[in-house]
Amino acid sequence: HDNAGSCLERTLVMIKPNMISKSDQIIPEIEQAGFVILQQRRVRFTPEQASDFYAEHYGKMFFPSLIAFMSSGPTLAMVVAKRNAINGFRQILGPTNSEQAREVNPKSFRARYGTDTLKNAMHGSESQHAAEREIRFIFPDSITEPILSGDESTQY
Ligand code: RTP
Ligand code: MG
């Protein structure tokens, strides 16, 4: 089996404020790429919540502009599932810099919807640890264990 050894994962995806108006176009693309949307929520981040969500970047040059951007309007957050969802979504997301995305992966979300390094249209968790933390951050009531593991995942 092709996917033997791979694991059904959940990752946190966000459509950032500059592209939330394109959600009706973006969501079917996420589903066509094989991701199942488990939960979805519109979030209006306060600057404090955005700072907390992006705490790993505190102190960096771009932190103030990141916080201003992420609290400039609503964001659409969703929990999506697929085999290897975390890396798989980062692949179709493209690099952080939208201009670089247009060069290296023109079909990626950031290539097509992003503007630059800051306004890069979408977010996807970058590791298992980040995914768990971010899902809990946005969906505090959601289950915290992996949805399925081992042999069970083949039934999905
Ligand atoms: P994300 O967390 O939003 O999915 O993006 P990422 O992993 O590709 O990039 P990361 O390094 O985690 O940066 C988080 C967000 O901060 C903004 N940023 N601006 N040099 C800059 O101006 C700069 N670098 C990063 C972007 O909005 C980036 O997605
Ligand atoms: Mg990141």
From TrEMBL:
The active site is at H123 (pros-phosphohistidine intermediate). Transmembrane segments: none annotated. The keyword Glycosyltransferase does not apply. One of its GO terms (biological process) is CTP biosynthetic process. ATP binds at K16, F62, R90, T96, R110, N120. Keywords: Cell projection, Developmental protein, Hydrolase, Kinase, Transferase. The keyword Nuclease does not apply. It is found in: Cell projection, Cilium. GO terms for molecular function: hydrolase activity; nucleoside diphosphate kinase activity. One of its GO terms (cellular component) is cilium. Belongs to the NDK family. This is Nucleoside diphosphate kinase homolog 5. It comes from Oopsacas minuta. The chain holds residues 11 to 166 of 211 of the full protein.
